[in-house]
Amino acid sequence: MLDTVREIETPEGISLRLRAAGAVPRAQAWMLDLLVRLGVFVLAMIPFSLLGVGGNGLAMLLLFALMWAYSVVCEVWLGGQTLGKRALGLRVVNADGTPVTWMPSVVRNLLRVVDALPGVYGVGLACTLIDPHARRLGDIVAGTMVVHAAELPAGTQVPKVAAIAPPVVLAADEQAALVEFAERSGQLTLQRQEELANLLMPLTGRRDSGAVAQLIAHANWLLGRA
């Protein structure tokens, strides 16, 4: 039931850290989604009750859509988030960190029937406790996972080190590129950091790890840090 971190390295050398959501926040999001669906159904029953047999048919169609289509449509159209997941800061993504698409979303939601066995999501809870990334059976089969979607405020990703002024005046776009490199340095492998930093040896006068440290120091100066 504890949250875990899954680190994925992309072909570009970027290291993605996905913090998997445990059973508790996922259960809370599911309860919120249940309340939303119940609210929509109850409100819709007011006009449906005036339509007799036709209203009963419409009610059944709405119930089917809320049970089976709601999660899929929200996950695909709202960036992997149902209303409950959005309220809890959770998001469904593919196991490689890419946005979830139609087929994985359909599969993971169809398999809720199995995860719910033998009641109160017994199978799903057992899977989240056993799987290292807290996935239920539907996520394992569909190749998806539920992660915390919160992002750090802009600028806080730059490591805080002693600031050093650049030796030359940089244009606005050059300053932005340097700060962006410093912000993303924690997501890059050491080899990729050094490869990019070595391109700016005329600015830093250093190579490899020394160049990386120098660029981060320049970024701190550009951010107004002492």
What are its keywords?
226 residues, mainly alpha, two-stranded antiparallel sheet, two-stranded antiparallel ribbon, 11 helices, 4 strands, elongated
What's this entry about, in short?
The protein has 226 residues and is mainly alpha-helical.
Describe the structure.
By secondary structure, this protein is mainly alpha-helical. It folds into 2 domains: 4-148, no CATH class; 172-221, no CATH class. Helix content is 56%, strand content 10%. It contains 11 helices and 4 strands. The strands form 2 sheets. It has a two-stranded antiparallel ribbon with strand order 1-2. Strands 3-4 form a two-stranded antiparallel sheet. A hairpin with a 5-residue loop joins β1 (4-9) and β2 (15-20). α1 runs antiparallel to α2 (53-77), α8 crosses α11 and α9 crosses α11.
